[in-house]
Design goal:
- The chain has 340 residues and is of the alpha/beta class.
- The chain has three domains: 69 residues, Methane Monooxygenase Hydroxylase, Chain G, domain 1; 173 residues, P-loop containing nucleotide triphosphate hydrolases (Rossmann fold); 73 residues, Ubiquitin-like (UB roll) (Roll).
- Helix content is 35%, strand content 21%.
- It contains ten helices and twelve strands.
- Strands 1, 2, 3, 4, 5, 6 and 7 form a seven-stranded mixed β-sheet that branches.
- Strand 10 and strand 11 form a beta hairpin.
- Helix 1 runs antiparallel to helix 2 and helix 2 packs antiparallel against helix 3.
- It is globular and about 60 Å long.
Length: 340
């Protein structure tokens, strides 16, 4: 077995934050490939972006790639049928979690091209239903998972949640138990070492835990006394997550929900431009917020990253540009021309 060891302390740049060094120490103690992947991803997120860390950044990216190859090899060796092993597609994968009759399948149908079985009785969804949601010029994969119910939650289903890029917690505004269901879903997530968040995670997580961006969708706002239950939940959540009230029946707030799902993924769309050519606005590169010009170069072609000098950041209205370094963090809508 190939050992993936952390970088020696002597090789680290001197200006790394304390949390980076604490996380790097966890990498020394990590035993499983999955734990190592999580920790290396966190190290990449914590690493300051400047010329002095370029080599370390590249080393971490190579380490992460190798770990993922090893994880894939292990999965092939121990492969068995898993209905929740869903190949990602589009700009990101968002799972829909909720109790029976919360309206998950109706939401999937309203937002995507999917046609799931829908009925007004529990457990109509017994396997994942997939659909692609169009938002402006990107496609986002939505996965309607079987409902959560008290007493047993399929661990394979919760593994699908861990692998996703974000989750919608769906609640029925016509249900008097809406607060109990909210608390129970959070309990189930924490039992599987999943910490849902929106802005940030306050406390440092132990190895094996993951943070996953989440938002709340309150469906069936057309029901009697829905507003009162919605207000109760809003007070209970206390701004921890965004809460979007909708009614699939009335078509209420569905466009706002689409926008929030896009924000949930915390991604940016970047448009590449060739010298003397207009940018391609039809097919943006989709990257995590915080990604740099160097990340874009690696996404286009790994050889580009080795020769990359920087990029021209274009203002297409004024037909002007300014030169930016390799470590420039790109924003949604940036037009980038790589300089090799």
């Amino acid at each position: 077995m190939i050992r993936i060891s952390p970088l020696g302390v002597d090789n680290l740049p001197a200006n790394l934050p304390p949390e980076y060094k604490r996380t790097e120490e966890k990498l020394r103690r990590a035993k499983t490939i999955e734990e190592k992947i999580e920790i290396v991803q966190k190290l990449i997120a914590l690493l300051p972006k400047h010329k002095g860390t370029d080599k370390l950044y590249a080393d971490l990216k190579r380490k992460l790639s190798k770990l993922k190859e090893m994880a894939e090899e292990e999965r092939r060796k121990t492969a068995r049928y898993d209905p929740f092993l869903i190949k990602k597609s589009g700009a990101g994968q968002v799972v829909l979690l909720g109790f029976p009759n919360s309206g998950k399948s109706s939401i999937l149908k309203a937002l995507t091209n999917s046609n799931p079985e829908i009925a007004d009785f529990p457990f109509t969804t017994v396997k994942p239903n997939l659909g692609m949601m169009e938002f402006e010029n990107v496609q986002i994969q939505l996965v309607d998972l079987p409902p959560i119910h008290r007493g047993h939650v399929d661990p394979l289903m919760m593994n699908a949640v861990r692998r996703s890029d974000g989750m919608l917690l769906i609640f029925d505004a016509g249900n008097d138990e809406i607060l109990d269901e909210y608390e129970y879903i959070l309990k189930v997530l924490r039992e599987r070492k999943i910490e849902p968040y929106w802005d940030r995670i306050e406390d440092e997580m132990d190895v094996g835990w993951i943070g996953l961006r989440a938002m709340i969708v309150v469906n069936k706002m057309d029901r009697d006394y829905a507003e009162e239950r919605f207000e109760m939940l809003m007070e209970f959540v206390n701004s921890r997550f965004p809460v979007v009230p909708i009614s699939v029946v009335e078509g209420r707030n569905l466009e706002e929900l689409k926008r929030k799902i896009f924000e949930l993924l915390d991604i940016v769309r970047v448009y590449s431009k060739r010298p003397g050519k207009p940018p391609d606005y039809e097919k943006p590169f989709v990257l995590r917020r915080g990604s740099t010009v160097l990340d874009l170069a690696e996404e286009i072609h790994k050889e580009f990253s080795k020769k990359l000098k920087g990029a021209k950041l274009w203002d297409m209205e004024r037909r002007t540009y300014r030169f930016v370094e390799r470590n420039y963090e790109m924003k949604d809508g940036d037009v980038i021309e790589l300089v090799i």
